[in-house]
Amino acid sequence: MADQRVVELFDEFMEMVKDFIVRHRLQYEDYAAVTRYLVRVSEAGEWPLWMDNFLEATVDTTSYGEGPWTPSAIEGPYYKPGAPLLSRQPYTLPMRPDEAGDKMLFKASVRNPAGEPLPAAVIDVWHATDKGLYSFIDAGMPDDFILRARVPVDEDGTTAFRSIRPAPYEIPKNGPTGDLLNSVLGRHTWRPAHLHFRITAEGYKPLVTQLYFEGDPYLDSDCAEGVKQGLIIPLSKTDVDGDSWTHGEFTFVLQPQ
Ligand SMILES: [Fe+2]
């Protein structure tokens, strides 16, 4: 039996597209160009990338809702479930022995809207290298959980982990998604540097979000439109074992279930 909601959504979507064709008097060559482009995206296997780049930020706004909790942000296509749960202090994200980049100490606190700590929370964090590459995704990176881990939270709802500072990166620019952004629309394919988080605690909605860094050149022109004001943090310097490390911190507030 037909799913009535799907039928209604499909019909409305098609009406919208047909109105658009009529309003702009699109011709057969336009129709052929669009068809060719859609086939290119399919053949390149870029539909997940295309959807996340152009539409996920809007789905994010209709999904998590706004309230006295941390704003959500797009998950993007590079999350990998099953990252190792760290157990040895000081918590350090898995990295290659020669991992390049500014050493970074990140402190986090996880709370509910009343300000109470959530000690049972787990912070699943993933981010790019200082060349803007992701493990499992970039062909030159190992298929291993590099710069990806699940970090437990202490009794007082706080935790800290060590890693390196990620760099801004370009989404794949040589395929049809990058082509559209760069050559057709005159935008660019850069995302500002960011940390990805997926934070879970029993009784609370999983929070998928990202943190960006003040001063990043792409904060105002993120190709994926994922930046939100409440998610931009300052970075400072702190002393770790006698060295000067980059330091960031954030209090995550979860939405009750
Ligand atoms: Fe990312």
Termini Cα gap: 32 Å
**Proportion of residues in extended strands:** 15-25%
Placed side by side, the strands forming the largest sheet appear as 3-2-7-8-9
- How many strands, what sense, and barrel or not for the largest sheet? 5 strands, mixed
Question: N-to-C SSE series?
Answer: HHHHEEEEEHEEEEEE
Task: Explain the overall architecture.
This protein is an alpha+beta fold and 257 residues long. It has one domain: Protocatechuate 3,4-Dioxygenase, subunit A (Sandwich), CATH 2.60.130.10. 24% of the residues lie in helices and 25% in strands. The protein contains five helices and eleven strands, in the order ααααβββββαββββββ. The strands form three sheets. Strands 3-2-7-8-9 form a five-stranded mixed sheet, with no helix packed on it. The protein has a four-stranded mixed sheet with strand order 4-1-11-10, with no helix packed on it. Strands 5-6 form a two-stranded antiparallel sheet. The longest helix is centred in the first third of the chain and has 20 residues. Fe (ii) ion binds next to β7.
What is the compact description of this entry?
The protein is an alpha+beta fold and about 260 residues long. It is built from 5 helices and 11 strands.
Which labels suit this protein?
5-stranded mixed sheet, binds fe (ii) ion, 11 strands, 24% helix, single chain, Protocatechuate 3,4-Dioxygenase, subunit A, 25% strand, 257 residues, 4-stranded mixed sheet
